[in-house]
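Handout, page 2. Input:
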Amino acid sequence: MSSKKPEKEKERLHPRNNNREKYDLNALTTAIPALKNHIKPSKSGAASIDFTSPVAVRLLNQAILHHYYGIKHWEFPMENLCPPIPGRADYLHHIADILAEDNLGKIPTGNKITCLDIGIGASCIYPIIGVSSYGWQFIGSDIDPKSIASARNIVQKNSSLKGKIECHLQKDPISIFKGIINPEDKIDLTISNPPFHASIEEAQKGTRRKIKNLSGKKVKTPTLNFSGISHELIVDGGEAKFIQKMISESKVFSKNCFWFSTLVSKESNLKKIYTSLDEIGASQVKTVPLGTNNKSSRIVAWTFLTADEKDAWVKKRW
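Output:
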């Protein structure tokens, strides 16, 4: 294996990220006028979004999708996770760069690329960004029927997404790839943003810390500013156990997928991840740091294909 450890954590978003610079509030409020009601001065006195408000956060992300991605219909239940668009986009831009490394430096685009999103969620966010940015085809899986229904509704209401995103219910909640990937399938890329809390208490603790950082206030029973129902945020054993399960199952589909990948929020989980990938026989592992000024994370990607198998895959599919 190679390229396990990142050289350093990044402090800025990817160069292709539409939101690398400060938010263009004039453009965003033009896209979604209701956002104007949630702009207030920051500590420095500059106009800013009230990030402690779930309604404000949702309107901001609706405006970003409308203005930058051409998505005019993005509605889903308030209790579901409202993903921060810039961070989600960064994952896809960096993983696109990994594909480019196997394609003479050129990012493969269009419907010849199939990406599997593990945990598509009610917002359908990764497929939206991937289709809009690169024209990729997507398969999205989720264990929640309501999330699948919501994601399908978003696809149907946006003409640019129709025919490009399939939403599949994962009927076995303890499986990740099984039941979703068929023996004959070829998947160029799998992505995942695992639930990273092991309990409700842990999730609330993280939210209290986030609210204190944003507002300076201590809150006993916080409301998640990005919302999120239990299975989106909490899983038995937390992020570590989920990723270990993903690694184990990936071996079964080692010849079906070009690159597997996942977000890893907790740096302390990396050592066990690398050990597991060594033990299971991954031929190559890459770690890509992600980060903004107040949060850092990383992508871990792995493949089981040999160099010759990768070359043959690229020539045939890309």
